[in-house]
Every structure is written in structure tokens, then in C-alpha cells.
Design goal:
Blueprint (H helix, E strand, L loop, with lengths): L1 E5 L4 H12 L3 E6 L7 H10 L4 E4 L5 H10 L4 E4 L6 H6 L1 H22 L3 E7 L23 H18 L5 E7 L1 E3 L18 H10 L5 E4 L11 E2 L1 E3 H16 L3 E7 L5 E2 H12 L5 E4 L8 E2 L4 H7 L7 H14 L7
Parallel strand pairs: 1-2, 1-4, 2-3, 4-5, 5-6, 6-11, 7-10, 8-13, 9-14
Antiparallel strand pairs: 9-12
Helix pairs in contact: 1-2, 1-8, 3-5, 5-6, 7-11, 9-11
This protein binds nicotinamide-adenine-dinucleotide and uridine-5'-diphosphate-4-deoxy-4-fluoro-alpha-D-galactose (UFG).
């Protein structure tokens, strides 16, 4: 298949490009590089020994998308391109709605014009309402999001679902990711956040590297076994492969299909830190800090539907995630910057 990967230079996009190329697909990537750089795609080429086409530009530029669809016979699109920082979205709601919804609308319009019928959309566990019971199945209540980023994903899910419903030859998969962490086992590709990391794993790796003084554990008084927040961390390579399963799955299924991409297991912040220290033989300096506004105590997936229907499960362990994250960070202390 020839796959258009939007946001292809980003963390999840670049790892998915590797898996697509290694599975024998052709890849055309498009990215405006607002949160990434071209070096990640050079690393994709280095790891796979294969070429991919890259267009630098914004998805809201419909002329660019039309040109891409004219120049390539695209079979399906995997749509990663979005802004994703929860806290920033509260400060810049219009930017988040404008970018995430604008990009999705312009992509759907261009797909419509070009007659491209298959779409895999990157959504997030953040679309689930906070009052659900764990684990979260795909039928759990959505909405009541606590920030504009979450709402933008919720609205985009609606847009791509209505897009699918309006023509029965369209096939759409909505994938709700839990907490992607880790890096490619080669150590050549990984997460390279700009500025101070918001997420746990890059904060841990930068702390061990000495770029941060110590890890702030946001709250140790949650109703969890050790008092720290519990999440469903999923290795980036497992997550990337979930997209290949989704492409196969939607091939024969019109309409929209929704899947969680998680492991189904919850891991606490303290457990993650302990695993990181043990696997890598390092110390992670930590201190207990106040709870972070908007955080849930516990969030993990019901992974049964993905296993049964999609035929996909995550099997990499927390130890794999910690080892590969550190391998990437220590080999690339400044990320993709030389
Ligand atoms: P990322 O920032 O590394 O990748 C997103 C890429 O999209 C970046 O390279 C950015 O430059 C590009 N981009 C953004 N807006 C664009 C636009 N208008 N036109 C062209 N390119 C644009 O983020 P990621 O972690 O790889 O996330 C990929 C997708 O997965 C996003 O949709 C995100 O919301 C979703 N997601 C991520 C997580 C996570 O924890 N990483 C969790 C759930 C869902
Ligand atoms: N945490 C710390 N210290 C830090 C960073 C995080 O203690 O410096 C804790 C958090 O309080 C939480 C856990 O580590 O208990 C995970 O936090 P992350 O920020 O890594 O991840 P979140 O679960 O908050 O959010 C992530 C993505 C969102 C996405 C959500 C659900 O950042 O975009 O998963 O998929 F919506």
C-alpha cells in the first residue's frame, strides 16, 4: 500500500513510518515541522535502508494536499498531525482548535476530492470522561473533556466518523492511545520534546542525564496502592504496529471502527521509576510535589476489543520501555540536535 502519514516527522509518526517501510509499504510523509525536524526522517531512512517521500508544509494548506494526492496514488492516510500539549492548549485554545480541527477538515476535504477512502485517525484516551470506571472500554462515556486539546480530539473523532458515515465506501479507524513511551530499539529514533518535558518518561531520562535536577512526582496521596498516579504505558513500537493492524482491519470494513491502543495494565509513577533504575542501573532523583491540576488517579485501557477484533496486542514490557527510552536518550543527549 502507499500510505500518506501526516505528522510523519513526529514521535509516533516517525516510528510508524519505520514499521510501514519494514512491512513493505511505501510512505509519503507530510509535516510542517512545528514540533519536529527532518532529522527524524533521516533516521527512519537509516534504520530501514529505505526511501520515503517527504513534503514540508501545513495540512491546512489544501493546495498542498491536493498536489500530494495528484502526485501519488495514495491508498490510505494515517493522520497524526496535531498539537498535543494539554497545558498549552488551555493557554492557547484557538491555536489548538484551529490547528487540530482545521488540519482534519482540510485532510478530509482533500481525501474526498481525490477519492481516497481509508483513514486511520490518532485519538487519545483523553476523550473518555473522568467519571468512568476502569478499565476503559471503547463503549465508555466520552466528552466532558477538561482541556481544549481533549475537546479537539473529541470533535475530530466526530468529524471523521461523520465523514465515514456519509459515503459507505469510506473506511475509518479511530485509535485511542493511552501513554506511549519508549523508543526504537536501535537507539536512533525516540521522543525529543521541545523545552521542559510534560510527560513522565522524557522527564525521567532528562533527569538521569542531568538536564533536570530531579523528577517531581505529582502527588503521592492518590487512592492507589503506593499513592502515585497509575497509567497504561505502551511501547512506541507496539503502538506503531497497531496502525498496521488497523490498516488491514479497515480494508474490508466500511464505516468507523474505534479501538483502544493500550496494554490493559496500570503502572504507578513509583513503579515506573523503580523499573527504570533497576533495568538501567541508574538512580532517578525524585521529590514529592503537589498534584498536577487535571490529573486522574488511575487511567488504563480495556484491551480486549483490540485483541479480539483487531488481532493486535501490546507485548513489550515496562522494562523494555525503560531500557529503550534510556538507550535513545543516552545516545542522543540533545535529541536529534547534533
Ligand atoms: P508530535 O508532536 O511528536 O507529532 C505531531 C507532528 O505533527 C509533529 O511533527 C508536528 O510538527 C506535526 N504537525 C502538527 N500540526 C501540523 C499541521 N497543521 N500540519 C502539518 N504538520 C503538523 O506528537 P506525537 O506524540 O507523535 O503525537 C501524534 C498524534 O498522536 C497526535 O495527533 C497526538 O494528539 C496523538 N496522541 C499522542 C499521545 C502522546 O502521548 N504522545 C497520546 C495520545 C494521542
Ligand atoms: N508525572 C509526574 N511527574 C512528571 C510528569 C508526569 O509525576 O514530571 C505523572 C503524572 O502525574 C501522571 C503520570 O506521571 O500520574 C503520567 O503523566 P504524563 O504527563 O506522562 O501522561 P498523562 O497520562 O498525564 O497524559 C498523556 C498524554 C496526553 C493524553 C493522555 C491519555 O500527555 O496527551 O496521556 O492518553 F491525553
Amino acid at each position: 500500500m502507499k500510505v500518506l502519514v501526516t505528522g510523519g516527522a513526529g514521535y509516533i509518526g516517525s516510528h510508524t513510518c519505520v514499521e510501514l517501510l519494514e512491512a513493505g509499504h511505501s510512505v509519503v510523509a507530510v509535516d510542517n515541522l512545528c514540533n519536529s525536524g527532518k532529522k527524524s526522517l533521516d533516521r527512519v531512512r537509516e534504520i530501514t535502508g529505505k526511501e520515503l517521500d517527504f513534503y514540508e508544509g501545513d495540512l491546512r494548506d489544501e493546495g498542498l494536499l491536493e498536489r500530494i494526492f495528484r502526485q501519488h496514488k495514495i491508498d490510505c492516510v494515517i493522520h497524526f498531525a496535531a498539537l498535543k500539549a494539554v497545558g498549552e492548549s488551555v493557554k492557547k485554545p484557538l491555536e489548538y482548535y484551529g490547528n487540530n480541527i482545521g488540519a482534519t477538515l482540510s485532510l478530509c476535504r482533500a481525501m474526498d476530492k481525490a477519492g481516497v477512502r481509508k483513514l486511520v485517525f490518532s485519538s487519545s484516551a483523553t476523550v473518555y470522561s473522568a467519571d468512568n470506571r476502569m478499565p476503559l472500554s471503547e463503549n465508555a462515556k466520552t466528552g466532558d473533556c477538561t482541556n481544549p486539546y481533549g475537546w479537539s480530539k473529541y470533535i475530530c473523532e466526530r468529524i471523521v466518523s461523520d465523514f465515514a458515515a456519509s459515503d459507505n465506501s469510506r473506511r475509518v479507524a479511530v485509535l485511542r492511545y493511552f501513554n506511549p513511551v519508549g523508543a526504537h530499539p536501535s537507539g536512533k529514533l525516540g521522543e525529543d520534546p521541545k523545552g521542559v518535558p510534560n510527560n513522565l518518561m522524557p522527564y525521567i531520562t532528562q533527569t538521569v542525564l542531568g538536564r533536570r535536577e530531579c523528577l517531581n512526582i505529582f502527588g503521592d496521596d492518590y487512592p492507589t496502592p503506593d499513592g502515585t498516579g497509575v497509567r497504561d504505558y505502551i511501547h512506541i513500537v507496539d503502538l506503531a504496529r497497531g496502525h498496521l493492524s488497523a490498516l488491514e482491519y479497515i480494508d474490508g470494513r466500511p464505516g468507523v471502527s474505534v479501538f483502544n491502543l493500550g496494554t490493559g495494565k496500570g503502572v504507578s509513577v513509583r513503579e515506573m521509576v523503580a523499573a527504570f533504575e533497576k533495568v538501567n542501573g541508574v538512580t532517578v532523583p525524585c521529590r514529592i510535589a503537589p498534584r498536577r491540576a487535571g490529573d486522574l488517579a488511575v487511567c488504563y485501557a480495556d484491551a480486549e476489543k483490540s485483541a479480539k477484533e483487531l488481532g493486535w496486542s501490546a507485548f513489550r514490557t515496562i522494562e523494555d520501555m525503560c531500557r529503550d527510552s534510556w538507550n535513545w536518550q543516552k545516545n542522543n543527549p540533545n535529541g536529534f540536535e547534533e
